[in-house]
Amino acid sequence: MDGNAYVHLFQTRDNNYVYDVNTNSILKVSKEIYDYLKQRTDGCKESVNEQMEQEIGKMLSAGFLSSKRMREVEHPYSELLPYFIKNMLNTITLQVTQQCNLRCNYCAYSGTYENRIHSDKTMSFEIAKKGIDFLIQNSSEAHKLNIGFYGGEPLLMYELINSCVSYAKKEAIGKDIRFSMTTNGTLINDRIMDFFVINDFHILISLDGPEEIHDKNRRFAVNGQGTYKSILANISRFKSKYPDYVKKNISFNAVLDSTTDFNCMNEFFCKYDDIKDFKTTVNTIANKYLKTNIDVCEHYMIQQRYENFKYMLYKVNKLDMKFISKLLNREFAKFQDKLCNRKYAKRIFDKDHHGGPCVPAIKKLFMDINGVFYPCERVSELSEPMKIGNVYEGLDIGKMRNILNIGKLTENACKNCWAYRFCYLCAVQADNLTELSAEKKLSNCKKVRLHVEEDFKDYCMLMEFGCSFEEEEIKYLNA
Predict the structure, then answer these.
(1) CA end-to-end span of the chain, whole Å?
(2) CA nearest 361: which of 379, 345, 337?
(3) What's the pLDDT score for residue 292?
(4) How far is it, in rounded angstroms, from Cα 13 to Cα 88?
(5) pTM of this prediction?
(6) Residue 350: per-residue pLDDT
(7) Which domains does the chain show, CATH number per domain?
(8) How confident is the model at residue 387 (pLDDT cuts 50, 70, 90)?
C-alpha cells in the first residue's frame, strides 16, 4: 500500500479505528493493522505477516486506503451562484433599527465586539420595500419566502414592520410567505400579540434562564434594571390569550454564560412550568469579532460535561429520557447528522471544498438599515469583505464567491486535511474586517481537528455500547 494513504487513525478505550477520507468511512481494525498503518503514515516501512497482508489487501480491494486527494479547492456551487441569486432567493432579514431598549453585556452592539454599535438609526420604508422587492424579483423558483425582522430591538419599529408585512403580502402573489422575528420580548403588548397571530409570525425570544442569570446580562437601557419579570409577564399574558399559537410559533434562544451555573439554567428550561414546553435553542457567547477573551468557570464546564455524559447514557439505554437536558438536543442532532447520516463516497472529487461555508444569500441574506447586503446577521457590519452588495446595485458575485470558496485561502492545507469534510470554518473565521486572512483562518484549524476527532471517538464509543443510530451504516472490518 501507499504510505501516503489519506486516512486518520484514532482509538477508543477498547478499539482501534481508521477514518478513510476518500470513502468517508470509519473502519474498526485490529491493533496489529492499526500499528502498521500508523508506522506507514509516519513514513516508516514495516513488514507484515500473511494474515495482515490479507487484511490490507481486502481493504485495498474494497476501495479503502487510497492516497487520492482533491486537486483544486473549489465549492461545487461556485459556478451556479449567478443562477441561484437570480432565481432561488427565498429569505431576507431586515435590520429595521439599530436602536434597542436594552443594553446586554454580550450584545454585538455593546462595544465589546468589532462588529456594530448602538445608534438611533432606523430603516426607511422605501429601503425596506426595495429589499422585499429584491427578494420577490429573484425568487422565481422559490415557492416559500421568509421575511425576518431584526434589530437592535425590531419591535421599536412596529409601525414599519406592519407596513412591510402588508406590502409583502400584496406583492408576493402566489408565494407562500412567512414572517419571523428575533425580539427581546419586553415590548410585546396586546396589539402586537394580535398582529403576530393574524400574520402567523414565528417569534424567537431571547431568554437566558432564571431571573438571577438572565438579569446578569440582559438589562434595560434606561435604568439598568433586569428584564426577566417583564418578559415572563408578557409571555404569561400571551399564553392566556393565544395558547395554541404560542405553543406552535414561539421559541426561546438562550445565550449560555460560562461564568454562571449551568445546572440552574438547565433546571429552568427543563422543569419550570411556564417555560418547559417551549422549544429552546442555546448558543454560547459569540467569540467572533470579540475584543477580549471570554471567561469560563470550571464548575460550569464540569456541569455541562456531566449533562453530556448523561445524554450519552440515554443513547445507550442506560438512563431514562426524563433525566436528559433538552438544552443539548440541538448539539446532539447536529452530531448525529454529521456522523450518522454522513454520505459514503467511492472517491474524492478532483474539485471539492471543505465544510463550513453556506451559500451566501441563499441560506440567509441580511440587509442593514442602509440597504447593504451581508451573508447573514452574524457577520460584522464593519467588514468590507462581508458587504456583498446593496439593494440598489444588487449582489456582488465576486465577493460572494470569495466567501463561498474560503478554502482557497488555505488551499494546500485543506487539500491534505483529513477533517475537511467535517470542517465548520466559514469566512467569519478569516475576517479581519479589511480582508479575508489565510493566517487568521489557519489559526482555527487545530481546534477543528481536535473537535472532529473527539466526535469520532464519541460516535464509535456509543456504537460499541450498542447505540443504534437511524440510517447508520458504520463499516466494521474484523481482523
Answers:
(1) 17
(2) 379
(3) 66
(4) 48
(5) 0.92
(6) 95
(7) 78-339 (3.20.20.70)
(8) very high
SS (H, E, C) the chain: CCCCCCEEEEECCCCEEEEECCCCEEEEECHHHHHHHHHHHCCCCCCCCHHHHHHHHHHHHCCCCCCCCCCEECCCCHHHHHHHHHHCCCEEEEECECCCCECCCCCCCCCCECCCCCCCCECCHHHHHHHHHHHHHCCCCCCEEEEEEECCCHHHHHHHHHHHHHHHHHHCCCCEEEEEEEECCCCCCHHHHHHHHHCCCEEEEECCCCHHHHHHHCEECCCCCECHHHHHHHHHHHHHHCHHHHHHHEEEEEEECCCCCHHHHHHHHHHCCCCCCCEEEEEECCCCCECCCCCCCHHHHHHHHHHHHHHHHHHCCCCCHHHCCHHHHHHHHHHHHHHCCCCCCCCCCCEECCCCCCCCCCCCCEECCCCEEECCCCCCCCCCCCCCEECCCEECHHHHHHHHCHHHHHHHHHHCCCCHHHCCCCHHHHECCCCECHHHHHCCHHHHHHHHHHHHHHHHHHHHCCCCCCCCCCEECCC
- Encoded amino acid at 440, one letter: K
Give the whole-angstrom CA distance, residue 197 versus residue 246. 9
Per the CB < 8 A criterion, the answer to whether 16 and 28 are in contact is: yes
- Reported as half-sphere exposure (CB side, CA atoms, 13 A), residue 281 has a value of 12
- Position of cell 454522513? 342
- pLDDT tens for 445-457 read 999 999 999 999 9
Reported as a single tens digit per residue, the pLDDT across 42-96 is: 777 767 788 888 999 999 999 999 999 999 999 999 999 999 999 999 999 999 9
Residue 65, amino acid: L
Strands 25-29 vs 475-476: parallel, antiparallel or unpaired? parallel
C-alpha angle 201-207-213 in degrees, rounded to nearest 5: 175
Q: Which of 57-66, 181-190, 263-272 has the highest mean pLDDT?
A: 181-190
Per-residue cell: 272: 419550570
Sheet containing 279-284, strands listed edge to edge, beginning at the edge strand earlier in sequence: 279-284, 250-256, 202-206, 176-183, 144-150, 91-95, 366-367, 372-374, 389-390, 394-395
Which pLDDT band holds residue 329 (cuts at 50, 70, 90)? confident
Q: What pLDDT sits at residue 477?
A: 37
Q: pLDDT of 95-124, one tens digit each? A: 999 999 999 988 877 666 666 677 899 999
Contact between residue 153 and residue 122 where contact means Cβ atoms under 8 Å apart: no
